[in-house]
């Protein structure tokens, strides 16, 4: 069988992306070369190289047929090395397969432009923000770690700039407008010094954040000033809003945060009372604004014993009795005497349950509360009037009453007997002042 031998050496490496004119190697052949028909490549990377036999010079020339990619080796987890061999084919069809074998190192070089451009942080700017920082850019480039150079289209190069190695910002004195909401696309050219690529990057544009609005400060009544709308003045050492007009001239009294109350008059005017004012007095009665005032206590006792909410006429004699020196137990005893006989006929446990449920507006009381007061009655440690006071004025009962009567309690108490009205006036819900969120409850409760 014919045999061919070779002399010479190939370069140790080849740069990625090399074409037929970029890299060439030659070997001298000897032996049975007159019978050599052609030389071909073999092995793992045979498709990337070709061999040409010249019988006149006795040389075989090797060139790359396809471009090698350094990054492709990294993706497959293999060493960047191109391995191939030569096979000699003779004129009788025989093949010498044990020809020379070669391993060329594939060199990395910057032959690929950047592939991605994105925000690694930020990416948002408010309309009207002058010279604002937009975000930190991140460039994906398989061949380069930078530095990268950024440029913009002519219509944007006066607006944007990239500073500090990759921070996109508006140029000093420049801002984006409301017409740029919600997204402003920016064309950015990225170069690694050898290759470049253009990317369309979206910048989110938001409405300006002016911070929280200043809280509304209503003009509350102040001492020593001229009467406000409806003749309202501050009286009672600063604890009472006073007018000589009847309650019918007011359409609503509405509580607002901070202990402020708004009194709306039928003329459309409004008067505001500050947190120190605990009642508003009209010519035919007064409104107790305090959740822990005498009217609230009287209303709680009335609700617990009579199982119904008191109106202004109901509260007037109770508050008057207390002012005259009567104690709560005495008032409770009087109310118990006016209740239906069915309540008096109840045993101790039934009596306590009935009053406890009424005091809580129909809610079920805790069993421990029922047991405690029933045992007090059974042992003679407390009278029914005393238990009624304890249940009606308990923190739970007063809290429930305050939740259902946030604007306080009306007491029909005219300045003189000829004033007329002693019943409960009819009020609508109040409107709400600008800047103050409306409450979820009715404006007046009696």
What's this, in brief?
The chain is an alpha+beta fold and 446 residues long. The chain has nine helices and 25 strands.
Give an account of the 3D structure.
The protein is an alpha+beta fold. The longest helix is centred in the C-terminal third of the chain and has 13 residues, at 294-306. The protein is 20% helix and 30% strand. The strands form 6 sheets. Strands 2, 4, 7, 8 and 9 form a 5-stranded mixed beta sheet that branches. It is elongated and about 140 Å long.
Give the secondary structure arrangement, pairings included.
Elements: E1 4-7, E2 13-15, E3 25-31, E4 36-42, E5 49-54, E6 59-64, H1 70-76, E7 81-90, E8 95-96, E9 101-107, E10 116-122, E11 124-126, E12 133-140, E13 149-152, E14 160-163, E15 167-170, E16 183-191, E17 196-206, E18 233-235, E19 240-242, E20 250-256, E21 260-265, E22 270-273, E23 279-282, E24 285-288, H2 294-306, H3 312-323, H4 328-337, H5 341-344, H6 348-359, H7 367-378, H8 384-392, H9 395-404, E25 409-411
Helix pairs in contact: 2-3, 2-6, 2-8, 2-9, 4-8, 6-7, 6-8
């Amino acid at each position: 069988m014919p045999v061919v031998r070779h002399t010479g050496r190939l370069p140790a490496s080849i740069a990625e992306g090399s074409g037929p004119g970029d890299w060439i190697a030659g070997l001298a052949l000897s032996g049975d070369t007159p019978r050599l028909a052609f030389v071909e490549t073999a092995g793992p990377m045979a498709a990337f190289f070709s061999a040409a036999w010249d019988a006149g010079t006795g040389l075989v020339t090797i060139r790359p047929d396809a471009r090698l990619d350094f990054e492709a080796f990294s993706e497959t987890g293999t060493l960047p090395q191109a391995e191939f061999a030569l096979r000699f084919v003779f004129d009788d069809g025989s093949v010498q397969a044990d020809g020379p074998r070669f391993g060329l190192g594939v060199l990395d070089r910057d032959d690929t432009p950047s592939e991605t451009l994105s925000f690694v942080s930020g990416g948002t700017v408010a309309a009207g923000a002058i010279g604002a920082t937009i975000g930190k850019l991140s460039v994906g480039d398989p061949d380069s770690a930078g530095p990268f150079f950024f440029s913009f289209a002519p219509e944007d190069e006066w607006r944007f700039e990239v500073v500090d190695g990759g921070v996109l910002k508006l140029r000093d004195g420049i801002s984006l407008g409301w017409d740029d909401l919600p997204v402003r696309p920016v064309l950015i050219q990225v170069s690694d010094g050898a290759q470049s690529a253009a990317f369309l990057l979206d910048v989110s544009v938001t409405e300006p954040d002016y911070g929280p609005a200043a809280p509304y400060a209503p003009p509350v009544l102040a001492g020593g000033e001229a009467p406000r709308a409806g003749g309202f003045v501050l009286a009672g050492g600063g604890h009472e809003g006073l007018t000589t007009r009847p309650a019918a001239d007011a359409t609503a009294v509405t509580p607002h945060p901070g202990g402020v109350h708004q009194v709306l008059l039928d003329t459309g005017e409004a008067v505001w009372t500050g947190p120190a004012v605990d009642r508003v007095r009209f010519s035919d009665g007064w409104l107790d604004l305090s959740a822990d005032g005498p009217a609230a206590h009287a209303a709680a006792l009335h609700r617990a014993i009579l199982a119904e909410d008191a109106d202004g006429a109901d509260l007037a004699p109770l508050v008057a009795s207390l002012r005259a020196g009567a104690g709560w137990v005495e008032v409770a005893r009087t109310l118990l005497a006016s209740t239906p006989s069915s309540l008096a006929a109840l045993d101790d446990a039934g009596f306590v349950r009935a009053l406890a449920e009424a005091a809580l507006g129909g809610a079920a009381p805790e069993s421990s509360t029922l047991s405690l007061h029933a045992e007090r009655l059974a042992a003679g440690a407390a009278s029914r009037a005393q238990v009624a006071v304890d249940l009606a004025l308990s923190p739970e009962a007063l809290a429930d009453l305050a939740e259902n009567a946030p604007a306080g309690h009306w007491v029909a108490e005219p300045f003189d007997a000829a004033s007329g009205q002693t019943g409960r006036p009819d009020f609508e819900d109040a409107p709400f002042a600008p800047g103050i969120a409306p409450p979820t409850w009715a404006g007046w409760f009696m």
